[in-house]
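Q: I'm writing up a methods section and want to include an example of the input and output format. Could you take the sequence below and give the corresponding predicted structure tokens, formatted cleanly so I can copy it straight into the document?
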Amino acid sequence: MNIIKRPILTEKTQDLQKKGKYVFEVALKSNKVEIAKEIKRMYGVDATSVNTIRQFGKKKSRSTKTKVTSGITSTFKKAIVTVASGEVIDFYQGI
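A: Here is the clean output for your methods example:
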């Protein structure tokens, strides 16, 4: 099971990166200890704190010519990881 699915790169998270905080989408059943160990293994930086947020799915609907289709987006979990001062995670390495 992959604990860290992907980094979340938005304007808001780019501002957090300047403060040493990085945002990731993680597995729903993962906990803070597992997330910190995975960050250490993948990026080689020490996580000083990990905050998690469960983002519940939203109801969405769309109209077509014949009917209205409705559904719900997926629930996912985000982790805001604070790294030790002086350490950075470079997402664009190897591109």
